[in-house]
Amino acid sequence: MNVFKINIISLLISTIIAFIGTPFIFNMLKDGDCLCLNYKKESIPSSMGLLFVIVQTITVVLIGLYVKKDLIIIMLYLVGFILIGLVGLLDDLIGDEKVKGFKGHIKSFFKGTLTTGGLKAGIGFLIALIISIYISNGVLEVVVNTLVIALFTNLINLFDLRPGRASKVFVIMSIILMLTSIDNYFSFILFSFFGILIKYLPMDLKAKCMMGDVGSNTLGLTLGVYCAYTHSLNSKIIYLAILIIVQMLSEAISFSKVIEENKFLRFIDNLGR
């Protein structure tokens, strides 16, 4: 199977569907009053990540039927992808903004209150565990894969604080993961997202819409599943260590402040705005 060919087909399919579907999703959210304020205090559609769920699902199903390989893994990915998108959408629509961070949701849970963030964390862990059980060899790899997928799922959300930042982090991480993978066959799930971002990213950069948790969660899950499925155990352990450090730092420092104080990071962050 020609991996390059599959990746290009995946990219083209997603790009075409994204260009067709974006105006419909945008207007649906706008007409349904699913809005939030951007940094300019303008009301814009939130949860545009719903576009990701729809386009990615269609594209990956079509590619899966075409390649007829690893269909169970592809379907597990899609089930988890759709489910994490739904709980992300729920968090967007009725989430309590007063409860912040992983610690905050855990504290609320033990006080007898289930937050949408807590539900998202629980569902995300369950998805990661189910996928990991199927693709792993041995208990250690199950544990590593579960944590890698779960922490990647939350990673993009940590950076979704400025226009275009989450998408840029996804693209950068995708390139790094493809360069360090031992099997690039599954990279079509990344290329299909590249196709979506060709249409979506310019709108995000100009603060015309926001992806919301439904978007950041699905981006993160995709990175996690790709990493777990295409990397050696040693590589995944390294990624896991980095992810844990990043998650811990997010509780103590502001990534936005770090980016603003670094010239190179600030340049990348402002690119396209």
Structural class: mainly alpha
Into which percentage range does the β-strand content fall?
under 5%
Number of strands: 2
Oligomer: single chain
Q: Distance N terminus to C terminus?
A: 39 Å
Rg computed from alpha carbons, rounded to a whole number of angstroms = 18 Å
Mean pLDDT: 91
Largest sheet: 2 strands, antiparallel
Q: Which consecutive residue ranges, at least 5 long each, have pLDDT under 50?
A: none
Question: What form results from the Cα inertia axes?
Answer: globular
Percent helix = over 70%
Overall structural domain count: 1
Explain how this protein is built.
It is a single chain. With 273 residues, the chain is mainly alpha-helical. The protein has one domain. It is built from 12 helices and 2 strands, in the order αββααααααααααα. Strands 1-2 form a two-stranded antiparallel ribbon. The protein is globular. The mean pLDDT is 91. It is a multi-pass membrane protein. The chain crosses the membrane at residues 6-26, 47-66, 72-94, 114-136, 142-159, 171-198, 237-256. One of its GO terms (cellular component) is plasma membrane. It is found in: Cell membrane.
List keywords for this structure.
273 residues, mainly alpha, 77% helix, globular
Topology of helices and strands:
Elements: H1 3-31, E1 35-37, E2 43-45, H2 50-67, H3 71-94, H4 101-110, H5 116-135, H6 139-159, H7 165-180, H8 188-205, H9 212-230, H10 233-252, H11 255-261, H12 263-270
Antiparallel strand pairs: 1-2
Helix pairs in contact: 1-2, 1-8, 2-3, 2-8, 2-9, 3-5, 3-9, 4-5, 5-6, 5-9, 6-7, 6-9, 6-10, 7-8, 7-9, 11-12
Cofactor: Mg(2+)
Binding site for Mg(2+): 157, 213
Protein name: Phospho-N-acetylmuramoyl-pentapeptide-transferase
